[in-house]
Amino acid sequence: MPQIIKVKRGTGTPVSLQLAELGFDKLNKKLFIGTEEGVFDLSGESYAKKTFVDSAVAAEAALRTTGDSNLSTSLNNEISRATAAEGVIAANLATEISDRTAAISSEASARSSADSVLDGKITTEKNRVDAILSAADADKDSFAEIVSLINSVDTTNDSAFAGYVTSNNAALASETSARQSADTALGGRIDTVESAATALTTRVSAAEQDIIDNATAISTEASNRASAITSEASARSAADTTLQGNIDSEASTRATADTSLSNRITTLENASADSRLDAVEADVADHETRISALETTIDGGVY
Length: 303
Prior knowledge:
By secondary structure, this protein is mainly alpha-helical. It has one domain (about 45-270). The chain has helices at about 45-135, 140-270, 275-300; strands spanning about 10, 20-25, 30-35, 40. The protein has a 4-stranded mixed sheet with strand order 1-2-3-4, with no helix packed on it. α1 (about 45-135) packs antiparallel against α2 (about 140-270).
């Protein structure tokens, strides 16, 4: 009679199985086998691995997407802040340039007006001197009287003219000093703006490099994940092929055993009744003896 071999059975995943020993999960209807690495799930290994890999890839993709979004947001915020700062700096610089231009224009206009007034007074004095020189050939007494009169009259004009020249020179010196100080301050502010623009360029370049590095890291990670998935699929395919080979071998062995058993039964059927009965009884006794001897080994027990 054919033997019935029972595998270990229990509920849930076996804690441990010997090498090539089978275990059956009655609750979840799963079959396990002991390997050198531990308990191997024959029914759900490929699915479990694929699910794990898919979950890992999806989680990594979500992290990368979140990281890209955060980086993009930070970069956009920095660009907005830098753009606003540049706008303020540009507006302040434009205002300063406009103020300096207006001040210079006003000073030039004032200097031009003052020069015109001064030229007019110089022309007036020149005409008076020319008139005096033209009358130099007149009677000396008359000329002396004219010179004395002019000298007495010109004392006031000379004093006023000297005071104007002194005041004008002081105002010009003060304005020159003020313009030089303003130009120095403007140069300092322009240097500050240039320094800020250089710093901004450096920060934008760094942000661009961060984006490039992040894109490279994402590409590398995607390549590694794809390689891992391919490797895992190859390993699972090889394991499935090996398992199928073992199953085919076991099926062939069982078929051979069934054929042998069928031949033995046919032989017994062709023998005489007594001899067949004796043979059957002998076989039964032998089987009972072998079953009794192998019962604890054939029955895998529970885990």
